[in-house]
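4.2 Preliminary Data

To establish feasibility before requesting continued support, the project team ran the inverse folding procedure on a target of 175 residues. The structure was first converted into the token representation described in Section 3, and no sequence information of any kind was made available to the design step. The complete token record follows.
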């Protein structure tokens, strides 16, 4: 980690103590197989027009992110929480505060072009990892909207990457 990538010094909001969070939010860090099964259920039940889910995910905006495997090149789909900024979707590579980045983040580093399914639309996007002041500004906005991510940051020594998924328009060649 470079000095320009220091971890946010902001503590988790006091309204979100880890003890009071639904344990489902820590599956990726504590039970990867359970997280994989839960993600498969979310993907199978994803309603294209849905913006958020009920239960533990009540009011939490979700999108489906489809990346290409960093090594395999095969499509990989995962549900992720997001916030909006400047026409794009902001996602944090939290993996529930696990010591390592989620696979989808490594996939985006290798292949930044991806798709998202959100709000009834499927969009082509290009991923861009933020840094410095932009990263901090978007991180702060994200944890204000989704305070669980502040807890995730506090659970790990790594800096949570902040990724902007920007919609792209592809030009098709003339016949």
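Position-by-position output of the design step:
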């Amino acid at each position: 980690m470079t000095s320009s990538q220091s971890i946010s010094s902001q503590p988790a909001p006091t309204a979100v103590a880890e003890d009071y969070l639904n344990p489902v939010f820590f599956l990726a860090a504590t039970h990867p197989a359970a997280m994989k099964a839960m993600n498969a259920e979310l993907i199978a039940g994803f309603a294209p027009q849905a913006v958020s889910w009920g239960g533990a995910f009540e009011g939490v905006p979700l999108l489906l992110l489809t990346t290409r495997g960093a090594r395999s090149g095969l499509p990989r789909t995962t549900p992720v929480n997001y916030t909006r900024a400047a026409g794009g979707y902001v996602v944090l590579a939290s993996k529930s505060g696990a010591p390592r980045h989620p696979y989808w983040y490594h996939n985006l580093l290798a292949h930044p072009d991806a798709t998202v399914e959100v709000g009834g639309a499927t969009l082509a996007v290009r991923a861009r990892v933020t840094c410095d002041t932009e990263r901090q500004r978007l991180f702060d906005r994200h944890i204000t909207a989704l305070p669980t991510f502040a807890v995730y940051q506090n659970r790990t020594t790594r800096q949570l990457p902040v990724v902007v998924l920007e919609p792209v328009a592809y030009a098709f060649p003339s016949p």
